Amino acid sequence: MERIEFMTMAVRRYGLTWTDPDGAVQASAGLFDKQAAIRRRRALKDAGCKHVKVVKVHAGELPQPAI
Are strands 13-19 and 25-27 parallel, antiparallel or unpaired? Predict the structure, then answer.
């Protein structure tokens, strides 16, 4: 009987945290792959947000805004 092995690949998800132009601290409610998170970071910076960070998120969690 032939043995079949599967390679599992860890799926990494990312979220974002940032500070709005008016000073409100925010965190993303959605998760992104790395490239999408980087594009979103650029869009937030272009919109005038500060302290924009891409953070790794574990399964079942959402990023927490820094207070």
Answer: antiparallel
